[in-house]
Amino acid sequence: MAYVASVPKESFRLSMLVYDTRYRSYTIQIAVLILFLAFLGWLLNNTIVNLAAKDKDINFSFLFQRAGYDIDQQLIPYTNDSTHGRALFVGLFNTLIVAFFGCILATFIGVFVGVLRLSKNWVVSRLMTAYVETFRNIPLLLWIILVFVIFSETAPAPRDFRATDEMVAAGQTPAASKIFFDSIAVTNRGTNIPRPFLDHPLGHVSVLDVPINLSVVAALALIAVCVWINRRLLAHAKAVQEETGIRPVVWWKSLLILFVPIIVFLYALGFHLEYPELKGFNFQGGINVAHSFTALLIAISLYTGAFIAEAVRGGILAISRGQTEASYALGLRPGKTMRLIILPQALRVIVPPLISQYLNLTKNTTLGMAISYLDLKGTLGGITLNQTGRELECMLLMMAIYLVLSLIISSGMNVFNTAMKLKER
Amino acid sequence: MKKSVMLGTLAASALLAGFASAGTLDDVKARGELICGSNTGLTGFGAPDANGNYQGFDVAICKALAAAVLGDANKVKYVPTTGETRFTALASGEVDLLVRNSTWTFSRDNDLKLDFVAVNYYDGQGFMVHKDLGVSSAKELDGATICIQTGTTTELNLADFFKSNNISYTPVTVADDSEAQRQYLAGACDAFTTDASGLAATRATLPDAENHIILPEIISKEPLGPVVRHGDSNWGDVVRWTYYALVAAEEKGITQANIEEVAASTNDPEVKRILGLEGDLGAMMGLDKEWGKRAIAASGNYGEIFAANIGEGTSIGLARGLNALYTQGGLQYAPPFR
Amino acid sequence: MPTKAAFVRKDMLAPQEPPVSERGAIKWARENLFSGPLNTFLTIVGVLAVFLIVKSALPWLLNGVWNANSMAECREIVAARHGEGATGACWAMVRERWHQYLFGFYPQELFWRPTMAFGLMFVALAPVLYFGNRTINMRMTAVAGVLTILALAGVSASFPQTIAGSEAGGLALLAAVIVFAGLTAVAWMAPRRLLILTLLYPAIGFYLLWGGSIWGPVGALAGFAILAVVYNLTKAQLGVVVATGAGVVVAAIWWLVVQSHVTGALHSILPLGTAHVDSDEFGGFLLAFVIGVTAIAASLPMGILLALGRRSDMPLIKALSVGFIEFIRGVPLITMLFTASLLLQYFLPPRSNFDLILRVIILVTFFSAAYIAEVIRGGLAALPRGQYEAADALGLDYWQAQRLIVMPQALKISIPGIVSSFIGLFKDTTLVALVGLHDPLQGVTKVVRAAIEWKGIYWEPYIFVGLIFFACCFSMSRYSMYLERKLKRDHR
């Protein structure tokens, strides 16, 4: 203490800003800040000067003008009379739906393949290795194109489904037929699946021009309530078990709670399926899923699945062999060992790379433009940009949207990751 | 590590070189090279061959222009542009002009600040269908699936056509021409729509061309032509009159082969003016006397260029149609050289 | 009393052969293929899948035609050979256009230059990738040399009409033999010396690819010399950061203002140089490699700085680094490419346009820097805390600790990650077609399909390009796995 007190109090000198470690970090930060602001100012200034020179301005009013083009896959109502802004949302939803289903599918593929790659079956493990290596080492763009081409080249044309009167008379069957109990038609231009249909729907509410189907909302609410009640039931059963050691029989109650209300609800609304039928050139009725969607989904899931498989394999290998042996010693079979012992532990290793794969997948959906899947890049960054010539606005808007998407995904997954973390006591 | 800075210096030196005088014509002359925005590859109109030399109907205009301005038809650098990048490349000064089958429309001319200086090909959007479909008019295509290339005026035309005829369709958007062709052949769409010239080129290369028909309806006007930046009228004039020199040459019967002979023997004052034997038209737009002569000598007159690249003698086999001279019932018409 | 045994065996039985089901191929199959109902099912499904794929593609592949001049001719030949209705690949396209897939529109008489640059790249990389291991270094140099010389000979033989086929080609071949023999000798005698080539390689590679006056690259290198001199002179007084800053400023002045005059003057005095090649003549795999390799190499220093910035104690620096990294990682590469082609013209001073490939390289460099930064951050995090503490205990300052203790170890651990970043980036170079560059997958293919004789060709270009991509990426990923194993051993 005395030693510290004896240090003479230094007066501040200017040179201390550079030499004294206490101040140097401030000096550096202020210098960097000034440079950074100067750089931003330079960019801004250039942009203003360039815009003036080109006699242009930054103006987002084109988003409210008539788009004039058609989009073949639309999750919200859209016609060529709608605005560019609406086309943007159509594109955004198209991006989201591919990304959403892609993440789910890729995870399934990845876990399945990752586990099978470690299988003792020689053929299977080699096949899986071959799958992982081919998909990882060839550009995604090529896979998207290939899957798309395979779909449109191998599926039958709609007219092959037709049974003309002469064919019926001659006892011939059409060259192609629908699959899954005559409900799904895979043609070379798309997949037609049955559309759920209600006789007495609850109607729509329009929010911001987006119609919200009340029947769907009600059904979802009902399901949520049922799931909640079921949870309470299970919690109760568990409490009873802890109390008395005997678990009350609940499975039929669970089934009853989970399924009966929703079935009754759908029946009351007159639920039935509308099947696709061949009329004119094409199948009418049902939902037409374009091959660009299916192909992009499959290609991107297979591609990302290969990367996830590697992450899963790495995660499984990271779990010490003792865990498996202990599990075998307890008498668990290999399948159960994997499901109950190894995978839950491996998950902690797997999740971080999984997040970045999800991010990659979402960003890679932009490659759908190679097969003209009209996602955000296709509408806002493609046709709208082309028709309006507003490249600055379109690109900035697009970057902002992707950035927000990525941030949402990574923060959501981070929350999950923290929840999954090994709780050390 | 060092590469980043080295590229930086390169960038900087290129940047310094980028500051030049105002007029595109002066820039081109100073650079000694014409930068021509071309297609990434469109059969007959502009594509590099096996040796990397660009060939085609649009490319010939660039060559003629380079010959007129720089005196050498080979001093052209071709910058391939896509549907999205083409107008930006032009507006940013990356290319001196675009000759890349771009349709002249009101909004492009005014809103995008471009100048379409001439029309070197009058096109229109048509439909191709398989004969088995039993369709003889585009109006019978109700409910059909139609393959269409994205990012062009064709999708707008298609939407307008079906709307005005009150019939419906399903669009299948495709990324490019070859993709459209493959989809169409695979039967993924009932009809394929694009510019009639593109349809003809596609049909010509199909293995079973006789089974495909091009429907009679032409649903749009597609005047395709060279584009320059708005606000540089001198350069626009150079491009425009170089093109008209080619058209006038056809009208006057000046060809690549006989140009010297004509120059020596002609008595026609307009021909003399075009070839720089009389008056000094070139000087009025900043070129020398013989610009027209060189432009025509580069790849021949308009008719020759047409015949060599896309005409009936080639495997694309387009008829002159609207692109014949006005004297033969077409629309190609050069204002007087006076 | 022991009962009398009827029979007592005195000698051992000769061991019997194991039953048929427990030996040889059958045992292996039983254990590996049919060990349970699930496995049996999987095996059958797997074999069936392979069979179906082979069955549908094999005839087409086998019917392939190598000698034809157009698609129509291919179809005729296939029909004539295998009967009407048979389909076959038209490899004749590959035969005619392979050089466009490899080199784009690079002048044919100069094909030896990119080939040479490619070969030298491996020699330059060897000391980095194999940490100065003498045998491997030498082997790699020798193999790269032999392969390059073979490739050069092949290229010259393919284009006999051009200069490469005649004397100049012969000279280039001879020069290549001498250069690679010399390099192999250096690798054998003093493997560390090869690092000089590594440092000089950017200039050499640049010069080989673009050509032009030799003074350009020399001038650029001189800038680094100036930087080093200024740094060394002022380090003692100003400290590392300020000295580096001063060096960079002086070097930047040299590059931006002085260099062009000096090199111009030197060129007029001593006009040394070779034919200049414009970057828009680059295409195919040449373009993919130029973009990929340059971007990764250039993004390394940036990535290191960003990674350090992200771990920095200074909140502002940290915020900027995190902001940059997360922004780049949050947007798709396509938007970066479109920025290069559409938006950069707004952000740079008016009328400053340099060629698209350069703009793409710069933006791709930014893109990969963010990913490299994360890889290096992983490497930094993997270093035991004790290393940092030991550096502090020795009294090293921040930069000394980074340079002498932390970075050498962290970078070594990061190499596999950097290699996989490179693989990803290399595959992603196919996207540059979307801004109109001639990448191998779509750009060159589009050019080929636009030719009237090859219009309608579909699968062949994709298969050809896909195979090359696979070969490149697969070998790189194998290398990275080898390295991972090796590094793991090192750490035990």
TrEMBL record, chain A:
Residues 92-413 form the ABC transmembrane type-1 domain. InterPro entries: AA_ABC_transptr_permease_3TM, ArtM/GltK/GlnP/TcyL/YhdX-like, MetI-like, MetI-like_sf. The keyword Chaperone does not apply. Coiled coil: none annotated. Gene3D superfamilies: MetI-like. Its main location: membrane. It is a multi-pass membrane protein. It is found in: Cell inner membrane; Cell membrane. Pfam families: BPD_transp_1. The keyword Cell membrane applies. The chain crosses the membrane at residues 23-44, 87-116, 137-157, 210-229, 250-273, 293-319, 395-416. Keywords: Amino-acid transport, Cell membrane, Membrane, Transmembrane, Transmembrane helix, Transport. Belongs to the binding-protein-dependent transport system permease family. HisMQ subfamily. NCBIfam families: HEQRo_perm_3TM (TIGR01726). This is ABC transporter permease subunit.
Automatic annotation (TrEMBL), chain B:
This is Amino acid ABC transporter substrate-binding protein. It comes from the Bacteria. Residues 33-262 form the Solute-binding protein family 3/N-terminal domain. Keywords: Signal, Transport. Belongs to the bacterial solute-binding protein 3 family. Pfam families: SBP_bac_3 (PF00497). SMART domains: PBPb. InterPro entries: Bact_solute-bind_prot3, Solute-binding_3/MltF_N. Residues 1-22 form the signal peptide.
UniProtKB/TrEMBL annotation, chain C:
Keywords: Cell membrane, Membrane, Transmembrane, Transmembrane helix, Transport. Residues 285-480 form the ABC transmembrane type-1 domain. Signal peptide: none annotated. Its main location: membrane. CDD domains: TM_PBP2. It is a multi-pass membrane protein. Belongs to the binding-protein-dependent transport system permease family. HisMQ subfamily. This is Amino acid ABC transporter permease. It comes from Albidovulum sediminis.
